[in-house]
Amino acid sequence: MSDAGTADLPHRDPGALTAAALRPLVGEGLVIAHPGLDGAHTLTLVAVEERPEATPPGAPRTGFRLVLRGAADAVLPQATYTIGHPDLGQVALFMVPVGPVPGERGAADYEIIMN
């Protein structure tokens, strides 16, 4: 990634990611970068949920969903972002805002679906 805070991280193939590999990162900050952003943003990974019902027969991995949380006053639009973490490297993934978090004032969630 060419954005500050993630430039030194190795690139990862999104197809090689698994729920098991990402689950240990729950509660940690992931750096979110995009050429259209003013600098990098940090979102917290709050959930990794396997989705066997959405996994095609014969797929090399079970589909899963990532939920990330950030501040509601700076909601990022849906787009493909470069996401980085020292234990993950950097990977380009499509992320969608899913709205404010009920019961958590000032927080907004994002979703990434991996099939």
Automatic annotation (TrEMBL):
Pfam families: DUF6916 (PF21880)
Residues covered by the DUF6916 domain: 17-113
Domain of life: Bacteria
Protein name: DUF6916 domain-containing protein
